[in-house]
Amino acid sequence: MSPQTKQQRHVAAGEWFFGRGDGYVRTLLGSCVAITLWHEALRLGGMSHCLLPEPPAHRRQTDALYVQGAIASFRAALRQYGARPEDCVAKLFGGGNMFPRQGARAGGDVGRRNVEAARFLLRKAGFVIKREHVGGYCHRAVVLDLNTGDTWLRACKPGERPL
Predict the structure, then answer these.
(1) Where do the domains of the chain lie, and which CATH numbers do they carry?
(2) Domain of life here (predicted)?
(3) Closest by alpha carbon to 162, among 23, 17, 30?
(4) Whole-prediction pTM value?
(5) Which residue among 10, 74, 87, 153 has its CA within the 20 to 30 Å range from the CA of 26?
């Protein structure tokens, strides 16, 4: 079946999903990062859409707006199923530099910082990143098939202007 004929769930900025289903989970990224997980033996999948690496001191640590919170949420969900991070296929997407001309005036390259944080925190939590498509200067659309764990990626072409 194609992605158009199955149930689809959109994961917006700051959201995450983890579970089973007959369908797809999708998101659209710029400087944000998406983490996808697939546990083949249990047929469980998930996706997060994170805006920033870590929360300020006054925010909850499990807030999925942040890489740190999304990973904590994934770990908690896996524990409910008796699963471990190292049993999952983790993939990382996004982290584009959407405003390269603004540089340090806009707080630096948030996309790069998101990717660095995701790599570090995923490994620290016991996940192994099997694939990634990160960085650059463009947007990405990511789709995760909850039946197979397959992911599809659509990214702008080299030289194409970001959205």
Answers:
(1) 7-155 (3.30.1330.200)
(2) Bacteria
(3) 30
(4) 0.87
(5) 87
